[in-house]
């Protein structure tokens, strides 16, 4: 299909590399070290944005209360719906310039600014099916390295045909059990399938994409730029030539986020999301997957209202894959992950533990690798993230597998796609997860061995994850995070090489600064203060 769409349209940002290689070297010339706790900043807390957009509402009308015939013409429906909104507002002397966006392909919806008096009048109108406060949406990715130490760099890994041109996530999803075998075997490539990436834009000229990126709807100047450098790595994991799952899928960029720079949040709103999905529903033909690596608040009222919209998208044959969120919370409390029509994905680590930041719970369908993955960066046409992570990374891996299945089964319904992903996933391998579906995505499109999981027995009381990042000069940063986190029982002792080095309270993370040259590996563990209830031991390697 030619694309007729014109260019109009739980957040933690930590990032530290996980290093699991074992190396032997002499410990000569070790300098005097300095260990100090380093403050790790949660960007969403820094900005302290509310969940809801003040004075902004999303209004959905009853289908039988509109005076125009809906069609597949996105722009005609948009203009017709704007007229409907203006007429409705005029009944209550609300200025028409308060209308933000309007759409009518999927459901008759418009966004509007209202004061309290206007809201109280409008909500009683019988033509309105629902009206609710708009919400903020945030990308679901992790920056776990010190500020400005995780910038992407040009790839120097050599021949693209080398067998090692994969990330550990690809390596993991084509096999049932650990250890990794260093390979990524493909049984399909996603050819003929469209993956819509609703995100911050995509750099279409990156070498990972081979000319397969096109522009979808955006309210910004262009969908084919990525000033926030989030949509490009997400697209790279879904469909990159080397570090993606579906290397021949068509990638369509629908930009929802503005630039993320210092002092400027990468934040969008629900009405923007609605309009992008409305545009996709207008023009999508053939097997279609939508990736949504973002989320916002989702109490039951919000989830129910969003589901009323999303189920209509799903019923048009559009597969909806979403990140579970990075709040270490119940995914059912967030949107769109909590909506029943959406396939929500949690993040796992290289050792098959749930990533400490990942949301969990019954709304998660399965897990996918979501920590420290190599993928494309928007900074240049040949630059790469070495350590991209978050449930933002896990979702596009699943979107890629869905595209592989749809290549071979182009007429499959959305429910058939969802059932296939569930049924072929590797069962019960994700540890330290408070989810009923502790299953890992599988890319070889069969269910052989899906239930032949290892008998994981874990005597540890806590799961400890470790990330190591290089600072300037001879400085290193060791980030530890652990689970579970019990609010009223959270004083934890931190041990390094068997010695107590500090105690922390009311949190589940700590970042240490270590200085020195030719540093030997160090072993860390955490214990509940005054007890023998401890975590596994985790090794930091300074390489």
Textual characterization of the structure:
InterPro entries: PCSK9_ProteinaseK-like, Peptidase_S8/S53_dom, Peptidase_S8/S53_dom_sf, Peptidase_S8_Asp-AS, Peptidase_S8_His-AS, Peptidase_S8_Ser-AS, Peptidase_S8_subtilisin-like, Peptidase_S8_subtilisin-rel. The active site is at residues 199, 230, 392. This is Subtilase family protein. Residues 190-428 form the Peptidase S8/S53 domain. One of its GO terms (molecular function) is serine-type endopeptidase activity. By secondary structure, the chain is α+β, with helices and mostly antiparallel strands. It folds into three domains: 35-47 and 461-540, Immunoglobulin-like (Sandwich), CATH 2.60.40; 63-126, no CATH class; 165-424, Peptidase S8/S53 domain (Rossmann fold, 3-Layer(aba) Sandwich). 19% of the residues lie in helices and 26% in strands. The chain is built from nine helices and 25 strands. It has helices at residues 43-47, 74-90, 116-122, 168-173, 231-239, 270-283, 300-314, 391-408, 414-424, and strands spanning 35-38, 52-61, 99-103, 109-113, 128-139, 153-154, 194-199, 213-215, 250-255, 268-269, 288-292, 294-297, 318-323, 334-335, 343-348, 364-369, 373-376, 383-388, 463-470, 475-483, 492-496, 499-504, 509-515, 522-528, 538-540. The strands form five sheets. Strands 2, 3, 4, 5, 10, 12 and 14 form a seven-stranded antiparallel sheet that branches. A seven-stranded parallel sheet has the order 8-9-7-11-13-15-16, with helices on both faces. Strand 17 and strand 18 form a beta hairpin. The longest helix has 18 residues, at 391-408. The model is unreliable at 1-48, 143-150 and 156-163 (pLDDT under 50).
């Amino acid at each position: 299909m030619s694309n007729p769409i014109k260019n109009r349209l739980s957040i933690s940002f930590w990032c530290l590399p996980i290093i699991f290689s074992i190396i032997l070297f002499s410990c000569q010339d070790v300098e005097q070290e300095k260990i100090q706790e380093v403050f790790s900043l949660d960007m969403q807390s820094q900005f302290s944005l509310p969940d809801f957009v003040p004075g902004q509402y999303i209004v959905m009308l009853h289908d039988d209360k509109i005076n125009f015939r809906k069609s597949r013409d996105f722009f005609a429906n948009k203009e017709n719906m704007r007229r409907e909104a203006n007429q409705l507002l005029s009944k209550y002397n609300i200025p028409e310039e308060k209308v933000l966006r309007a759409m009518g392909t999927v459901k008759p919806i418009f966004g509007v600014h209202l004061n309290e008096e206007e809201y109280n009048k409008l909500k009683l109108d019988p033509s309105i099916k629902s009206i609710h406060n708009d919400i903020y949406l945030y990308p679901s990715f992790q920056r776990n390295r010190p500020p400005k130490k995780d910038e992407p760099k040009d790839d120097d890994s050599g021949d693209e045909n080398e067998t090692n041109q994969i990330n550990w996530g690809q390596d993991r999803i084509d096999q049932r059990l650990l250890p990794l075998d260093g390979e990524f075997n493909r049984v399909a490539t996603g050819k003929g399938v469209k993956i819509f990436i609703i995100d911050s834009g995509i750099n279409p000229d990156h070498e990972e994409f081979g000319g397969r990126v096109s522009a979808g709807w955006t309210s910004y100047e262009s969908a084919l730029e990525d000033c926030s450098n989030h949509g490009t790595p997400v697209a790279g994991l879904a469909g990159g030539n080397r570090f993606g799952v579906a290397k021949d899928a068509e990638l369509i960029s629908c930009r929802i986020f503005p630039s993320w720079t210092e002092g400027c949040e990468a934040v969008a709103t629900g009405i923007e999301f609605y309009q992008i999905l409305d545009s996709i529903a207008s023009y999508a033909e053939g097997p279609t997957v939508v990736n949504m690596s973002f989320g916002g608040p989702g109490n039951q009222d919000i989830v129910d209202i969003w589901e009323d919209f999303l189920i209509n998208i799903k019923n048009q044959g559009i597969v909806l894959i979403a990140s579970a969120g990075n709040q270490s919370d119940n995914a059912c409390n967030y949107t769109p992950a909590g909506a029943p029509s959406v396939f929500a994905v949690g993040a796992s680590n290289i050792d098959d533990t749930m990533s400490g930041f990942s949301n969990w719970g019954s709304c998660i369908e399965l897990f996918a690798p979501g920590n420290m993955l190599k993928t494309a960066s928007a900074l240049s046409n040949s630059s790469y993230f070495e350590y991209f992570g978050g449930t933002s990374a896990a979702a596009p891996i699943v979107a890629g597998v869905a595209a592989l299945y749809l290549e071979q089964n182009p007429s499959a319904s959305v429910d058939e796609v969802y059932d296939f992903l569930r049924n072929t996933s590797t069962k019960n391998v994700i540890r330290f997860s408070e989810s009923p579906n502790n299953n890992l995505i599988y890319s070889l499109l069969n269910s052989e061995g899906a239930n032949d999981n290892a008998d994981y027995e874990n005597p540890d009381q806590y799961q400890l994850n470790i990330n190591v990042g290089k600072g300037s000069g001879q400085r290193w940063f060791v980030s530890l995070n652990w689970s579970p986190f019990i609010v009223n029982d959270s004083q934890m002792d931190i041990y390094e090489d068997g010695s107590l080095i500090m105690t922390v309270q009311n949190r589940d993370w700590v970042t240490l600064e270590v200085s020195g040259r030719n540093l030997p590996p160090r072993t860390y563990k955490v214990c509940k203060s005054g007890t023998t209830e401890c975590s596994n031991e985790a090794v930091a390697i300074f390489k």
